[in-house]
Amino acid sequence: MKKVLTLAIACCSSFSLLAQPKPAAAPPPPPKEEKSVLPLNVINPESAVVTEHEVTIKGQRIPYKSTAGTLPVWDSEGKTIAGLFYTYYERTDVKDRANRPLVISFNGGPGSASVWMHIAYTGPRVLNIDDEGYPVMPYTIKENPHSILDIADIVYVDPVNTGYSRIVGKDVQPTTFFGVRNDIKYLAEWINTFVTRNNRWASPKYLIGESYGTTRVSGLALELQNSQWMYFNGVILVSPTELGIARSGPVEAALRLPYFAATAWYHKALPPDLQSKDLTAMLPEVETFTMNELLPAIAKGNSLPGNERDAIIAKFARYSGIAETVVRQSNLDISTNYFWKELLRNKGVTVGRLDSRYIGIDKQDIGDGPDYNAELTSWLHSFTPAINIYLRGELNYKTDLKYNMFGSVYPWDRSGDRTGENLRQAMAANPYLHVMVQSGYYDGACDYFNAKYNMWQMDPGGKLKDRMVWKGYRSGHMMYLRKDDLATGNNDIRDFILKSVPKQGQPAKY
């Protein structure tokens, strides 16, 4: 159900009690039709369209309102330099908003809109796809029975040049926004504006980011504490990046293997004894080999005795589904790009980067990498029509701006990425702050084992360990596209939020 709310402005005029009655005047001419100040193909940095809806979550009918609109970004002198598009969902039968959690959601790229988690994961509406995440027609939107809107309000934010968000003014430099540190700085200011405008300072607050969005929210956790004096209860990292945590050489090469093993298991490319085991029963064996044998072996280089090298190569081949000859020729350092091409080369297909369950077809079977990302092409196929239909049709936000699924944000300044350390500092300074990581086993871009490695290195002493949790899912980068993981992933977020909201009167102290 949807109902569009309209805003009426009443004007009243004062009059003098001593005024004498005047002869009736002729009626005024009809007002001229007013035209919009800005054409629909130019961003209005401050706008809002409110609609009312209902959704059934876990068998309960939830009333809510949606605000689709823009809020400005200002420079240090108060000049508007950008308008950010957002979609804000509030449950309307809640009387105590102070105790109602608020989730602030970002996707990644950099340069990606918030569309992915918005209409496929946590929001009240979800796009029409099959149970494994593949496109189906007609392109429609339906209720999301697993949304977290029952326990938290949610705002989805599109950074500059994504979605409908744009720079305002020809003299504004893109470098103001396009870089690890600048991105975090201006978004922290914008969040302050949003929270203040919507009276959410008292609410328990959460950041959730996917892919590069995890870099963003990890940095925001500390920036919001240090520069906006805003403290959060939780950060949720969906398919996290490396978060600025250094890994190269032997570490980088070795950490790929568990992902290779998961993908090979899915495509039935492992030896029968490994293939007969369940995925989560098989992977610990590979993880142990990776840390205890493979990593030291790669580090030893040509000092590794020949017989030991042969044994390591044989095990690598056994766990990866890649022939021993190829492993030997690569010196135990097989890139993910080559793996996506090589694993099923004998079958004439490639596997996807962001989700290796997806299959691609290249022009030639030779080569060092796939011609295209089979999974991303599939996702754009279903997401792009859905978000355009939804925003204009159901949320009534009318604009001729193109909704940028991916917008130009280059060159992106990646220097100064210490976001993993930023998140650690934020946790250390804020005893309320908890972290949950969600990873898909078949994600080759931000793989699950590197996500675990992040957690180990962020907290090497184990002092924050009881406030960090990792969850794995049998899908890829966007694990929620698989029907079973949509339900499980949202339940995990729901549980994380409910457990991390402090009990009444519980102080933030060690």
Automatic annotation (TrEMBL):
<keyword id="KW-0378">Hydrolase</keyword>
<feature type="signal peptide">
    <location>
        <begin position="1"/>
        <end position="19"/>
    </location>
</feature>
<dbReference type="Pfam" id="PF00450">
    <property type="entry name" value="Peptidase_S10"/>
</dbReference>
<dbReference type="GO" id="GO:0004185">
    <property type="term" value="F:serine-type carboxypeptidase activity"/>
</dbReference>
<keyword id="KW-0645">Protease</keyword>
<protein>
    <submittedName>
        <fullName>Carboxypeptidase C (Cathepsin A)</fullName>
    </submittedName>
</protein>
<keyword id="KW-0325">Glycoprotein</keyword>
<keyword id="KW-0121">Carboxypeptidase</keyword>
<dbReference type="InterPro" id="IPR029058">
    <property type="entry name" value="AB_hydrolase_fold"/>
</dbReference>
<dbReference type="GO" id="GO:0006508">
    <property type="term" value="P:proteolysis"/>
</dbReference>
<keyword id="KW-0732">Signal</keyword>
<dbReference type="InterPro" id="IPR001563">
    <property type="entry name" value="Peptidase_S10"/>
</dbReference>
